[in-house]
Structure formats: structure tokens, C-alpha cells
């Protein structure tokens, strides 16, 4: 299977694992020449909080989710890593529930692979992924790479 587009979907919990996510995407994109869609998915409340924290000068309705995503630290860290490896990328922001929105973005971008992060679970939690990861793994239109963080 030829990879042309990889969707790397991040959310508010992914700041601490941006290096692991970048490495996972680079490992797949670099040898195949695939382009990467860096997508930051916000719930409505997360989006409002980020707009306030990033101190945008304009009204919330005039700010595009792509612009908010591009200014987010996690996306900027991932951009730097992809640029160091000359990997083509685009940035997309989306507002909605994390799991279904990631699945929608995968379909809309015609992704050949989705990369998402997650955290190490407790022994009883290992039987079930987090709800976002589970939704993406079960509903994605393409294969999913799950990048687990060792942090709780």
C-alpha cells in the first residue's frame, strides 16, 4: 500500500508526547514521501480556552480553527520536526468531539494512515483504550498507528 497522506491528529493532552508523535510520523512519511496533515482537534470549551490563552485580537467568530491550530504550541513543535526532515505538511484545525472529528478528518483528507497518541493505562484499563483512541481505531477509514506515552 502506497502512503500519500498521513493524518496526525493531536489534542490538548498531546503536548508532552509531541516528540514521540513526530518520530512516529517521520518514520512512516520520510521513506514514502507522504505528506502529513497536522490536525489539532478541540472541543468547544477547549477552543474557547485556547482563543483566550493565545490572546487573539479579533472576535471568536472571525478566527478560523486552522489559524488557532497553527498557533498552538504542539502544532508548532511538530512543524519544526517535519521541516527538519523536509516532509511536506499542512495544518488543519477542527472543533468537535475528539474521536468522531478525527475520523471525519481522516475521510475528508483521504488519509492513508492516521496517527494518534494515548497514554499508558492502568492494568485494568489496558483492556480498553481511551474513548478517543477506541473511536478512531474502530471507525477510521484507514489503518491507525497508536503512539503510547509512558506518562500517566
Automatic annotation (TrEMBL):
Coiled coil: none annotated. It comes from the Archaea. Residues 4-148 form the UspA domain. CDD domains: USP-like. Pfam families: Usp (PF00582). InterPro entries: Rossmann-like_a/b/a_fold, Universal_stress_UspA, UspA. Belongs to the universal stress protein A family. PANTHER family: STRESS RESPONSE PROTEIN NHAX, UNIVERSAL STRESS PROTEIN UP12. This is Universal stress protein. It comes from Natrarchaeobius halalkaliphilus.
